[in-house]
Every structure is written in C-alpha cells, then in structure tokens.
C-alpha cells in the first residue's frame, strides 16, 4: 500500500512534493549531534548495567527487576540500532542508508519503543494490584511469560511498516523514517493502531492505575496517622503492610511504602513528556497534508525525534537517583580510578528476597 503512484518518494533520489524545507541551523545541528552522542553512550552503558545487575545477582532476579531489565534492554537496542543513524542524518541532512533500510529502521524504532511501553504498562498494573487490590499476582515465571508475549505483540504491531502497510518515507523531510501523509484508509488505520498502541492505551491505563494508587496510599497514610497509637498487627495487615513483628515498630512515615511506586511514577511522567509530542506529530503527519509538506516539517521532526530518544537516557538516570542497589552496582562496575566518591560507612548490605515488594521497617524497600 505504501508503494502507490502518489508515494514514489520511497526512492531517496526522488524529491518529494514541496521539497523546500527549513533545515536546522548548522550550529544547532552540531549541538544536537554532540548531545545525541552522549545520549547513546548513557543509554547503552547505563541500561547495560541494569541488565548486568539482574543477570549476575541472583537476589535481584525478582519479577519487577526482570521487567526493568527488559525495559533497559529495549532502550539499549534503541540506542544501538536507531539513534546512530538519526545522528548521522541530522548532521548530514541526507539519508545515506537506502530505501530498504529505511523501512527496517522504522520497524525497529517502533518495535523497541512498543516493548518499552508494554513493560511500563505491565509494571503499572502490577503496582495497582499490589497496593490497591492487595494481590501479588506477579512472580518471576509469570514475568518471563509476559516478557515473551510483549515482544511478540510489539513485533506484530511494528512489522507492517516493513511490508508496506504503512507509508514511511526516506528522510528527505525528516532525519529518520517517519510516518508520512497518506490518503489510503487502510494505511491510515494501521498508523492509528500503531500510535494508539504506543501511547493512548498505555497512557490511559497507567494514568488510571496511578490515580488509584495515590488515592489508596493517601487513605492508608491518614489511617495510620489517626490511629498510630492504637494500631495492632491485624489492623496493619488490613492496610496492606507486611513485615511487622511488633505493633510498636509501626512508622508513621509512609516513605518505605511509596518509594518503589514513586520510582515507577517518575518513569511514567518521563514517558508522557517524551512521547506526547511524538504522538501528536505522528498523527498530524498522517492526516494533515499541509503539516507534512510544510517548510518547518524537517526542523520540527528533528526536535520531536530527539525528545523521543531522550526517554532511553532518562530511565537509567532515574534508577541511579532512586534505587540504592543500582547506585552500589554502578560503583562496583566502575573502574577503581573513577571511584572518586567515598563510600558512606555505617550501613550494612541487606539481602532482599525476590518476592519482597514493600517492607514496613526503618529501612526503605528496593525496587
């Protein structure tokens, strides 16, 4: 369907309709490329550490950590197989990799993005079941099954761009193969399905889950605050807190309860900020001929794609900021010559059981 008479632009030597476009100024292109090089390095090494932690440390192979490792792996693939070609095209303003690889790169881009979004969706539902429904349904075996299913579904949704069911154009109008304007109903339907699967469905489910979680945590915090002196162990159980041995160990501070959830919430906010502009951009590209052939389309697509790639760098930064065990593992993998920060004494390492999600104690829980 992509190879119809009105879209011969799949040959990169054929100028598209309205080929006059405003490119990004050279100094700004250089700055963007330099930043993208750092993004590739951080996206690769930061996410690789996440995968190594889960692979090497048996105690870290919990269901949630397996999902986070899969999310990190999808970001690694995005950093290796998509970002370098975009960076080269940004600096040269010319796609030098052929029409066939254009379709393949578009498929890989959507595949890895879809997989990352699917994992975030599963994590949000898991947090909802644990905190709101008080049901711990996810174990490592089920997590592995879900990971396989998510990869298969992501591949099935992204594969149509390779066989021509959606129109993707060689980047004479963008630094990467993007969804292009088409009037074919079937091609538009596939493009809408892709965009809905990447953003609207995950965003809606995650937003509802986190709203319910925040409401539940707020109610539980109020109950503990109002009945802190009279809480018994049975009452604490009803609030979904585990790990207490004596009623007097109740801590009114709910940070131990919400820290893991807050980390996932930050990832969700980062996903929303990075992908909402790309979603609007993709829909306008498919349905608005005026927008797609406007002179500013190239510069707009450059900024939008750069922002979407920022998500793969955002995740490991959040891990390092929020997860103590990740920071410790980073220090372990880092060469001794770069270990300039002194180790803080006085805190002993505690082995976390893979099934532990929240522990009501003085120490914070790990993701």
TrEMBL record:
Spans traversing the lipid bilayer: 30-55, 67-95, 107-125, 145-168, 188-213, 264-283, 303-321
The membrane topology term of the UniProt record is: Multi-pass membrane protein
Q: In its keyword annotation, does this UniProt entry include Transmembrane helix?
A: yes
Q: Which residues form a coiled coil?
A: none
* Official protein name in the record: G protein-coupled receptor 45
- Give the source species: Pelodiscus sinensis (Chinese softshell turtle)
Q: Where do the G-protein coupled receptors family 1 profile domain residues begin and end?
A: 46-319
- Per the record, a Pfam family? 7tm_1
Identify the PROSITE patterns for this entry. Answer: G_PROTEIN_RECEP_F1_2 (PS50262)
Q: Which UniProt keywords apply?
A: Cell membrane, G-protein coupled receptor, Glycoprotein, Membrane, Receptor, Transducer, Transmembrane, Transmembrane helix
GO cellular component terms attached to this protein's record: plasma membrane
Q: Name one GO molecular function term.
A: G protein-coupled receptor activity
């Amino acid at each position: 369907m992509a190879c119809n008479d009105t879209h011969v632009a799949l040959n990169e030597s054929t100028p598209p309709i309205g080929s006059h476009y405003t490119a990004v100024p050279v100094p700004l292109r250089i700055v963007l490329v330099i930043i993208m090089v750092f993004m590739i390095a951080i996206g690769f090494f930061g996410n690789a550490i996440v995968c190594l932690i889960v692979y090497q440390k048996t105690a870290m192979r919990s269901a949630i950590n397996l999902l986070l490792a899969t999310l990190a792996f999808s970001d690694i693939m995005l950093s290796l197989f998509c970002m370098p070609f975009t960076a080269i095209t940004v600096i040269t303003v010319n796609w030098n990799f052929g029409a066939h690889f254009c379709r393949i790169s578009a498929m890989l881009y959507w595949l890895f993005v879809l997989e990352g979004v699917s994992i975030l969706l599963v994590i949000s539902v898991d947090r909802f079941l644990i905190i709101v429904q008080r049901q711990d349904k996810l174990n490592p075996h089920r997590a592995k099954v879900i990971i396989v299913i998510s990869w298969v579904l992501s591949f099935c949704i992204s594969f149509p761009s390779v066989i021509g069911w959606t129109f993707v154009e060689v980047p004479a109008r963008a630094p990467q193969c993007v969804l292009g304007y088409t009037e074919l109903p079937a091609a538009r339907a596939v493009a809408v399905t892709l965009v809905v699967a990447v953003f609207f469905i995950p965003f809606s489910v995650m937003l509802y889950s986190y709203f319910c979680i925040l409401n539940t945590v707020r109610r539980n915090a109020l109950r503990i605050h109002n009945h802190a002196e009279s809480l018994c162990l049975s009452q604490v159980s009803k609030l979904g807190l585990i790990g207490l041995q004596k009623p007097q160990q109740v801590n009114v501070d709910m940070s131990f309860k919400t820290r893991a959830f807050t980390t996932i919430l930050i990832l969700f906010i980062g996903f929303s900020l990075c992908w909402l502009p790309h979603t609007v951009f993709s829909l306008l590209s498919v349905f608005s001929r005026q927008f797609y052939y406007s002179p500013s389309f190239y510069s707009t697509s450059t900024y939008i794609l750069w922002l979407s790639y920022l998500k793969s760098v955002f995740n490991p930064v959040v891990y390092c900021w929020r997860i103590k065990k990740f920071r410790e593992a980073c220090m372990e993998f880092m060469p001794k010559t770069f270990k300039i920060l002194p180790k803080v004494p006085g805190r002993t390492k505690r082995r976390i059981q893979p099934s532990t999600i929240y522990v009501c104690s003085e120490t914070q829980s790990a993701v």
